[in-house]
Every structure is written in C-alpha cells, then in structure tokens.
Amino acid sequence: MNATDSLVAALVDAGLAVGDGEPRNAGGALTGRYVVVRPRTELRGDGTAADPNADRSPEIQVTAAGPSRLAADQVAEQARAVALGRLEPPDGWVWQQAAEYVTGTGTAPEATTDPTAPESPTFFRVDVYRYYLTPA
User: Which residues fall within 8 angstroms of residue 117, CB to CB, at 6 or more apart?
Assistant: First the structure.
C-alpha cells in the first residue's frame, strides 16, 4: 500500500464515495457527492547524509464533486478532515510529521459540453495535500 492507497482507504472508511483516479469505481459512474483521488509529484530529499533521498513527500490531489457549490464544499471539507487526520502509514514507511494542505481551488461549476443535452452543472473543488514519509 502506498500513500494514495492509504488515503483512499481512509476516505472510504469515513463513508465517502471515492473514485480512485477517475470519477467512477467498479460499481459504475459515481453520482451526487464524491471525491476523486490522484497522486501528484513526489518530492525526495531531507534524508541522512548517508541516504539523502531516503525521505519522501508525496502530494495527493483530492477533487470533491457535487451537484451544487454547497455540496462540493461539504464533501471537500469531509475529505479534508480525513486527509489531515490520522492515516495508516504506507508499507515500509512511517510518518515523519503531520500532513499539510498545500494548495487548492475555489469551487467552480463545470457545465456539460454537449449543447444538445443540457443538464445541471457539476461543481468541483480541488485540494492538494502533502505527506512526509521516512523509511520504517
């Protein structure tokens, strides 16, 4: 299990609908309120002199979606509580320090791109978290 898997498992345990890398899961397309989890860059460094690249700091993007701005904000706040809370460390690693919120976007609508099938927009909010890992 890596850091992304650990976060996905914690979000699912918290009762959130999660698409891992895309907005759907094995049960089909997700509708309503959900989050999509994607790994981003992984920084390395801050290790010892003997192994300067031993420590890792992966970033994970969590995109919250909902049928309204309020719904997307609510699911984003639920996901934030989990992302910044206590997670199981990835296999072979321990947490070096607490996770941090790195950046994010305001909630914005994404309307359908097909003018022949108008529908209500889906609202999205993107947040990025960084985790600090050191070998166990």
Answer: none
Cβ atoms within 10 Å of 125's Cβ, excluding its own: 24
- β pairing state of 34-44 and 18-20: parallel
- The model's pTM is 0.83
Decide: 63 and 125 in contact? Cβ < 8 Å.
yes
Residue 18, classed as helix, strand or coil, is strand
Under 8 Å between Cβ of 79 and 8: no
b/e per residue, 41-56, with b = 16+ CB within 10 A?
eeeeeeeeeeeeeebb
Share of the chain above pLDDT 90, in %: 49
* Nearest C-alpha neighbor of 82 from the set 1, 26, 2, 6: 6
